Amino acid sequence: MDVTEVDIEIKKRRAKKMMLWFGIVSLIMGFAGWTSAYIVSSKREDWISDLELPESFFISTAVIVLSSVTYILAKQAVAVNAQKKATLFLSATLVLGITFIVLQFNGFSQMLANGYYFTGPTSNIKMSYVFLIAAVHIVHLVAGIISLIVVMVQQLRGRYLPGNMLGLELGATFWHFLDLLWVYLILFMYFVK
Question: Which of 18, 48, 90, 107 could disulfide-link to 56, CB 3.0 to 4.6 Å?
Answer without folding.
Answer: 107
